């Protein structure tokens, strides 16, 4: 094959706790994470060069981009003397805490593995991905998982109970390094009980899961929109409302799609970028090849 197209989903943090500092200086975490049906679409074509295009996006297409970093890490790990032409069509908001950049990196790793027939396993791809970013291994695995350490310890969980997420991205975004720096300065009293949250997942109990949903970074994000968005979500019937990752996106959990859509309509009076999403069971994956001669 000369090209592949990969879909890579965004993620939400159902919980996020900070448990310490690793020897390398990174914060250690304990989180429940979930992929959702908002996708980055990444096309990779064989090329003697390494090139990245992001049509319609303001994200810089340079050596600091996670897609380029992932490609370089892949070629370094495999020893392949090759290149790739990468086109990323972004849908996940930037600086939202939804792993858009990590999804791009995951898509590149999964796509290159297929494009060049490298035969790398998922754990091997995750090991490469961790060098690019802490959320990349989960973006490869996807589904519902408990993620610990610096993002390197992934435990697949039973599927999230049937629900819908109303997700809202306020104007502006949050810098992840700055959020963690403020956490180090300010601390928090918020520490979700991930063992109880895991038990709720295992029992398929959405109400019990929502009771444990919280984010240790929410206060240190200092996003002025967190409170107002969460208030609208709760007033609209959300079982839980919280920030995802280091922000700035906030989401609410709903039992039915109709209520979730009503919450979205209410949010869009003030915050145009809102979505109703649902859990999906996998991470970055190659789309089936289109049969020859078939029109789009």
Provide a concise account of the structure shown:
It contains 10 helices and 11 strands. The protein is of the alpha+beta class. The protein has 2 domains: 3-158, 2-Layer Sandwich (Ribosomal Protein S5, domain 2); 164-277, Alpha-Beta Plaits (2-Layer Sandwich), CATH 3.30.70.
Question: Your description of this structure?
Answer:
Its EC number is 2.7.1.148. This protein is α+β, with helices and mostly antiparallel strands and 296 residues long. The chain has two domains: 3-158, Ribosomal Protein S5, domain 2 (2-Layer Sandwich); 164-277, 2-Layer Sandwich (Alpha-Beta Plaits). The protein is built from ten helices and eleven strands. The strands form two sheets. Strands 1, 2, 3, 4, 5, 6 and 11 form a seven-stranded mixed β-sheet that branches. A four-stranded antiparallel β-sheet has the order 8-9-7-10, covered by helices on one side. Strand 5 and strand 6 (153-156) form a beta hairpin. The longest helix has 16 residues, at 100-115. It is globular, with a radius of gyration of 19 Å. It starts with a strand and ends in a 10-residue tail after the last strand. The model has no long low-confidence stretch (mean pLDDT 95).
Topology as a string of helices (H) and strands (E): EEEHEHHHEEEHHHHHEEHEE
**CATH top-level class of the largest domain:** Alpha Beta
Distance between the termini: 19 Å
Residue-averaged pLDDT, rounded? 95
Compute the number of strand runs. 11
What percent of residues adopt helix (DSSP H or I)?
Answer: 25-40%
In this structure, how is the largest beta sheet organized? 7 strands, mixed
Rg over CA atoms, rounded to whole Å, is 19 Å
Unreliable segments of 5+ consecutive residues? none
Q: Assign the structural class, choosing from mainly alpha, mainly beta, alpha/beta, alpha+beta, or little secondary structure.
A: alpha+beta
Contiguous helical run count:
10
Q: Beta fraction of the residues? A: 25-35%
Name the CATH architecture of the largest domain: 2-Layer Sandwich
> What number of domains?
2
Give the CA-based shape.
globular
What fold name goes in the CATH topology slot of the largest domain? Answer: Ribosomal Protein S5, domain 2
């Amino acid at each position: 094959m000369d090209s592949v197209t990969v879909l890579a989903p965004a993620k939400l943090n159902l919980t996020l706790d900070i448990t310490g500092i690793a020897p390398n200086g990174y914060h250690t975490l304990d989180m429940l994470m979930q992929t959702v049906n908002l996708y980055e679409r990444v096309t990779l074509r064989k090329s003697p060069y390494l090139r990245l295009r992001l049509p319609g996006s303001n994200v810089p297409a340079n050596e600091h981009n996670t897609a380029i970093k992932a490609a370089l890490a892949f070629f370094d790990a495999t020893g392949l003397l090759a290149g790739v032409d990468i086109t990323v069509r972004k849908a996940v908001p930037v600086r939202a805490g939804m792993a858009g950049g990590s999804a791009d990196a995951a898509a590149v790793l999964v796509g290159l593995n297929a494009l060049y027939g490298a035969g790398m396993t998922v754990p091997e791809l995750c090991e490469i991905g961790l060098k690019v970013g802490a959320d990349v291994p989960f973006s490869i695995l996807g589904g519902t998982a408990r993620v610990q350490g610096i993002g390197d310890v992934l435990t697949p969980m039973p599927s999230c109970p049937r629900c819908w997420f109303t997700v809202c991205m306020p104007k502006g975004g949050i810098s992840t390094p700055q959020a963690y720096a403020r956490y180090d300065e300010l601390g928090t009293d918020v520490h979700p009980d991930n063992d109880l949250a895991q038990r709720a997942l295992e029992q398929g109990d959405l109400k019990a899961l929502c009771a444990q949903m919280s984010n240790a970074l929410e206060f240190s994000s200092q996003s002025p929109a967190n409170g107002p968005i969460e208030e609208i979500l709760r007033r609209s019937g959300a079982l839980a409302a919280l920030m995802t990752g280091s922000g700035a996106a906030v989401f609410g959990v709903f039992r039915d799609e109709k209520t979730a859509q009503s919450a979205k309509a209410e949010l869009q009076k003030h915050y145009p970028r809102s979505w109703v999403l649902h859990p999906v069971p996998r991470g970055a994956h190659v789309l089936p090849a289109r049969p020859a001669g078939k029109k789009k």
